Amino acid sequence: METDFLVIGSGIAGLTYALKVAEACPQKKVTILTKTQSDETNTKYAQGGIAGVMDFDHDSFQKHIDDTLIAGDGLCNKQIVEIVIKEGVSRINEIIEWGARFDKEPDGDYKLGKEGGHSEFRILHHKDITGKEIERALLEAINLKPNIHLLNHCFVLDIITQHHLGYLITKSTTDVECYGVYVLNLATNKTEKIISKITLLATGGNGQVYRSTTNPAIATGDGVAMVYRAKGRIENMEFIQFHPTALYETGIRGQCFLITEAVRGDGGILRNHAGEAFMELYDERKDLAPRDIVARAIDNEMKIAGTENVFLDCRHFSKEKFVEHFPNIYEKCLSIGIDITTNLIPVAPAAHYSCGGIKTDEHGRTSVKNLYAAGECASTGLHGANRLASNSLLEAMVFAHRAFKDSISKIDSIQNGSITAGIGDWKTDGTNAPKEMILITQSVKELKLLMSDYVGIVRNNERLHRAMKRLDLLFEETEALYQKTIVSPQLCELRNMITVAYLIVKCAQFRQESRGLHFNTDYPNKLTRIQNIVQ
Ligand code: FAD
Ligand code: SIN
């Protein structure tokens, strides 16, 4: 198959880009690939909303910029922060034009929420299911575009570069070029090649590398792993954001239900097992301190008490107001026997967001020619060492737009037909059907366990060293299996997760300090920001 624009991923970043290129170039073919159902994305699960300066009477670009920089703990790229926050408002208005509905006050103004690290109320939301509403609106708009082809159940295996033409590519090769991708079509079980002029990676996050995560099963870091294999640049992988308040359900691991930070924005209070509101011991912003601080404080309280959770107290809320803003959370809690008006909600931190990823410039260009990245898989410089809540959906839209602008200025100059004619089919020589799935499932379990226990919220050099040794073994065993086995999503996801875990640990080892989300007790130079650390 050949296409002009190839988009990998059907979350907010991929769909926004696809809509824009399809609209600007109605004669060109746009193909979107997604590995399961089109709406099964991190985007669909977003709760709190999109941060944007909408109320200029109380808020300003400068305040949102300052909040982003403070959360980022000295590592944000200031130019990118300004771009995202200033251009974000136009992108929010576009998504509203495409049909996304955000909650309004009776006077017609948008209802604005507040989350950790924000100095003002600036979060647009659709109750507590903002992402579902965005995904719905974007997919409906996509359906109206005749030049967009959305293909579900197409698992992208690798991006095609000069490597697939027989050239040696190393880390110092400067002109790596993308010609498309190899895909496992799960409807036919065949591997196919798709040749494209321009490719956008919008493959989302990697929370599945950890045992407990707010991310759905699709979040296995495939885009990052593919770019790393293609010798593209990846950065800041140590900055994994743990959301402080995933619902704690005994025995439940994997994807955890989120209790949005907006609940704390509306007055929810964290309490430990002794019933104490502990956040004031850690930070003067209390329950609305940035996420890295709140998640570490909870981790510390759990270690002091020897428990697996703390609690979120909403008993003082008016039931009517809670249900109006958070109907989904109310129902979910009730379904497991928790009435938020009388019971505390058990919560614990869970892996939530990858601040690092595929390095891009201010146009979403990666270090690989004709390959762009946007959304959670990209590292644009916005988040630095810790993402400010609800800045992710905003960043995805801004960079999808910037990548679109750059792509359409280039598309007609890309004539790679003579090169791509030499690209071979996916090689299957010497591979057989997998004999035992246990060889994959057990390795996935080991990977999640070692990442959670050794490379979680609090790290140290010895734990990182041990994690790397165990990853080496998993890598060796999985590569051997990969060489002799017909590819499957399970095997490829394991391989990708091992690569991502390796990158997280490697970056964590490089960073010989504690900063933002990376807290290493061997470099406690930021310890003054919290008290009572248990190592
Ligand atoms: P995604 O929406 O995750 O989409 C990824 C796509 O890539 C999917 O379609 C997937 O199938 C596809 N894909 C991946 N690998 C492959 C492959 N190998 N082959 C083919 N397709 C592939 N952010 C906010 O700003 N505000 C919030 O309120 C908020 N709440 C959140 C709540 C939860 C529970 C979670 C998990 C995240 C939340 N976030 C929030 C973060 C935000 O939702 C995500 O960062 C954002 O939606 C990512 O969008 P994306 O387009 O980059 O990727
Ligand atoms: C939340 O609603 O708490 C998540 C917001 C985010 O991750 O930005």
Word description of this protein:
With 535 residues, this protein is of the alpha/beta class. It has three domains: 2-46 and 128-238 and 355-420, FAD/NAD(P)-binding domain, CATH 3.50.50; 245-350, Alpha-Beta Complex (Flavocytochrome C3, Chain A, domain 1); 438-486 and 488-520, Up-down Bundle (Methane Monooxygenase Hydroxylase, Chain G, domain 1), CATH 1.20.58. The chain is 36% helix and 17% strand. Strands 1, 2, 6, 7, 8, 9 and 18 form a seven-stranded mixed sheet that branches. It has a four-stranded antiparallel sheet with strand order 12-16-15-14, with helices on one face. A hairpin with a 4-residue loop joins strand 8 and strand 9. The N and C termini lie far apart (54 Å). Residues 527-535 have low confidence and may be disordered. The protein binds flavin-adenine dinucleotide and succinic acid. Succinic acid binds next to loops. Flavin-adenine dinucleotide is lined by residues 8-14, 33-36, 41-43, 45-50, 130-131, 154-156, 202-205, 214-215, 218, 222, 258, 353, 375-377, 390-393, 396.
From the structure above, extract its key features.
disordered C terminus; 36% helix; seven-stranded mixed sheet; binds succinic acid; binds flavin-adenine dinucleotide; alpha/beta; 535 residues; Methane Monooxygenase Hydroxylase, Chain G, domain 1; Flavocytochrome C3, Chain A, domain 1; globular
